[in-house]
Structure formats: C-alpha cells, structure tokens
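Hey L., structure's done. Input below.
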Amino acid sequence: QVQLVESGGGVVQAGDSLRLSCATSGVSFNKYVMGWFRQAPGKDREFVSVVDQNRIDYADFVKGRFTISRDNAEKALILQMNNLAPDDTAVYYCVADPNTFRGTGHSYVADDFYFWGQGTQVTVSS
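Output:
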C-alpha cells in the first residue's frame, strides 16, 4: 500500500527557506514518477516540480529557488525551498505514480498522479 506523508511546512517570512520532506512507503523509487504540487486558497492545484526516470523539471515560478531531490536511503522526497515569497503560500502535496510519463517539453498535471499525500501548509508573510 502506497503512503505519502509530508512534513516541514510552517510560517516563515519572505526570503526565508523551508525544507519539505515526503516520507514514503510502498513506493519503488526507480519505478515511480514523484513530485510536488501546491494549492493556494481559491486556486487550482498547480505543478511545482517532478523527478522521473529521465529528468527533473520545475515550474517557471520556482526555477532557481526550489530544488527537488530523492533520499534513497530514507525513501523520502525532498523539496528545498529558498528565497520564499508570499505568493508561495499554499498547501504543498507530495505525489507519486508508477504509470505516468511525459516527455521533455510536456508539463505534468495533477491528473497524472494517482497517489497524493495529505499536504503540508506553507505560509510566507511579507
């Protein structure tokens, strides 16, 4: 049974950093596409970052500030977020799927992922 549990969210000021972690069980790291989405109040869920068999991809609004990585020993997915801004305020979700794949130049969308964590709140004050 696949389980994804996010942690590391919190309340920070603009310019600060946070490190989100997604503890996994039932996930084969080398077979699953994994990533992060976020949802701000009143908005749809939006893509943040993904790591699949061939590449790492980021949404334009986080490039240069966020870094995704996999801790194979701990079986965790990490999102290091630097230079946070108020617009980054959202619930951040860890996602995983064994069957999805999009080629280079094609962005992942929420419907591509079957497994979702419960989310962790990130609030950035100005």
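The longest strand covers residues 18-25. The chain has a mean pLDDT of 95.

-- N.
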